[in-house]
Write a structure and sequence with these properties.
Layout: H1 3-23, H2 27-54
Helix pairs in contact: 1-2
Length: 55
């Protein structure tokens, strides 16, 4: 699959998770959603670094 497709998908999922995590009332759900969103953004950052290093 294309890098842009994968990273766009992960950024979108990460954004939704962070936004809904911030809006969530329950403390446990809030941190699960926020950490899932940050994890998705971290994967995108790692993929970007790997792509830059490869070239």
């Amino acid at each position: 699959m294309d890098y842009l497709l994968i990273s766009g998908f992960l950024i979108t999922i990460g954004s939704f998770c962070v936004v809904f995590g911030i809006a969530e009332k329950s403390n446990l759900k809030k941190w699960i959603l926020i950490s899932t969103g940050l994890f998705c953004w971290g994967i995108v950052a790692i993929l970007l670094v790997v792509k830059i290093v490869r070239y």
